[in-house]
Every structure is written in C-alpha cells, then in structure tokens.
Design goal:
By secondary structure, this protein is an alpha/beta fold. The chain has a single domain (about 5-125), classed as Rossmann fold. It has five helices and six strands. Helix 4 (about 100-115) packs across helix 5 (about 125-134). The longest helix has 16 residues, at about 100-115.
Length: about 130
C-alpha cells in the first residue's frame, strides 16, 4: 500500500514571496488557490509550522527545480530551518526540460508510483491545470 503524501514545490513556496500558491486535490479533483502570498506577510516560520502539522498525517515530498549539484546546500538550508520532509526531488544538472515539464514528468514517472498523493502545492497554475486534467 502506498503512503499518503502531499507535494510542495519548495522553490516557489519558500523563496518567492509575491505569488499565489495553487493546490490540486486528488481526492476531490478540485483546484483552488490555496494561499495568496503577499511580500513579507507569509513567513518561513508559518510555512514550516504548516509542514510540521501535515507531517503528522502525510509524507512530505518536496520538489525543487534547483539543480542537483546544489543538493548539499539545499539540504543544509532545510536542516537549518528545521523544515520537515521525507523526500526531496531535484532537477538533474543536465536536464533541458522546462520547469513545468520537469515537474509534470517527475510526478508521473516517480512520485505518483511511490505515493498516494492527496494534494500538490505549486505557484505555477499551468502545472496544476495539467496535473488536474490527467
């Protein structure tokens, strides 16, 4: 049996401050604007708390389009910030795929086979719309 999980695009959620975060719920098939971030209004502390709460019921899967060669740096930052996660996927250094296509392919080739995904959180509406349509 696959483990229940929620998937987050780490770069979009933690490093960009003035975007909406969209969510597709695979149980209901609904898409919603989960969070409208406003500069300096959503703190990393609040995001970390949300991940800690979710980790009680779900595996936390992080996706990063930061190249794999920066894994140690990113893992150190995650540890320093006490960000809870179970799996971290990073874009291969030699990947020529667009960010959107990388995330979609990663979801279908790896994440969806390993986890029973309840929700995906991403600021790129195109990614959410594509995943919702599949």
């Amino acid at each position: 049996m696959k483990q229940k999980a929620v998937v987050f695009d780490i770069r979009e959620i933690f490093f960009k401050k003035s975007r909406e975060v969209h969510r597709v719920n695979y149980l209901t098939g609904e898409t919603e604007t989960f969070l409208k971030t406003v500069p300096n209004k959503i703190s990393i502390r609040e995001a970390i708390y949300a991940l800690q709460e979710l980790s009680r019921e779900y595996k936390i899967v992080l996706i990063s389009t930061i190249p794999e060669s920066y894994r140690l740096l990113l893992e150190s930052w995650l540890c320093h910030k006490q960000i809870v996660y179970n799996n971290l996927y990073m874009k291969p250094d030699d990947s020529k795929q667009s960010t959107d296509m990388y995330k979609v392919q990663l979801f279908f080739d790896s994440i969806n086979h390993k986890y029973d995904v309840e929700s995906i959180f991403d600021s790129r509406k195109d990614v959410i719309n594509f995943l919702e349509s599949e």
